[in-house]
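Project standup — Tuesday

K.O.: blocked on the structure for the chain from last sprint. Re-posting the sequence here as requested.
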Amino acid sequence: MVEKGVDPASAAPGGVLSVTFLTNGGKVAVAPVNSNLLRVSLREQGGIPFKCGGGLCGTCRCRIEKGLENTDAIKAKERKHLTAEDFDDGYRMACQTFLTGDVSVSWKPKASASGPSVQLVQA
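H.V.: unblocked you, prediction finished:
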């Protein structure tokens, strides 16, 4: 099955593609063409943050740094969380994005659960 908006001729040769998780030290994962970006991240421990996985929360917002042309059409659920400017800058929601070729992706790292570190100085 071919996703709407995806040109099968632009699919990666051999039916596989690579995803480079830039925020995770440049980790590279290989996946089949038409894979969901969040599922690849989960399966390969890519590190894209998520909560719901279904387009409801916007937590999996990420930026396609390279290969934006290798993503499918923007979904209505993404339009609820991202602006036209976000899309122009390459942002997508990983849970809603299917891949047809190689991409490099980055995201804003989660804030530390303990908050900022505090260093005490004796006078």
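K.O.: great, moving the ticket to review. The chain has one domain: 11-106. The mean pLDDT is 86.
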